[in-house]
Fold each of these.
Amino acid sequence: MECMKRTKGRQSLKLKCIEDNNSRIVAFTKRRSGIFKTVSEFVILTGTDIAIYITNLLGKTYSFAHPNIEPVESQFLQQTLLSESFQELNQEVNVRELIQQLDDVCDDVKDEEQRATILMDKKEVRAKSVWEEPIEKLSPEEARKVKKQLREWQALVFNYLDKKIKVVVQLKS
């Protein structure tokens, strides 16, 4: 025989803001002591110093501190100020590094611009080679020079290939 549960048991509530102000104030009042109790247990278990400020809808502030508020508050403020000053120093260092990188890139760009200018000047100064002219525009003398040069290159390529073929044949034997 199966037993049917008569209640739903403990259910998790969907967290959402309580719409009615009076209900919200009542919930705050009931839960405030639970929060302070939990914090007190946390302090006992861990041996930490802690301070909590809670302000309700009406503007009334409640606090809990262990051992008392002054040392915890001063330590928090010192750490906050130190971390802010470290962040400012870190930002200054990052800015300096970025400025240095920008200067380096600008110097590189200037160098490349100068190099491009020099190359363009050299290109303009250099006489056009026979190889850059269309074959139809070559004079008979220029055509003979091109033909002679091509035969010399052909001979070089064939000699190179013959040597490579001989090496491969020797390796296979």
Note: The domain at 21-67 is CATH 3.40.1810.10 (SRF-like).
Amino acid sequence: MRVTFEIDDELLASMKEYTGSKTNEETILYALNHMAAMPWMRDFYSRSLCTPDELADALIPGYDPDTYLDNPPPPDPTYQPPPRTHERTTPVRQ
């Protein structure tokens, strides 16, 4: 079967290097075969978890994209960020 689609050049090049594939076709076939060989992935991607509207309502009850940006809810005054469990030991590259 022949299929035409767009793939990010950097992503494909990265995967080609990672897999050691010589061609784009080999890279894509490797990824598809690797994913199909993992039962948990087949199970996860075959489930219909919820619709985008159900997800939005679960995260922000009553969410309406037309009015949300104009009237966002006030921040939760009881929110406390989680404590840091470790400090960075290597410098950040700039």
Note: Residues 9-67 form one domain.
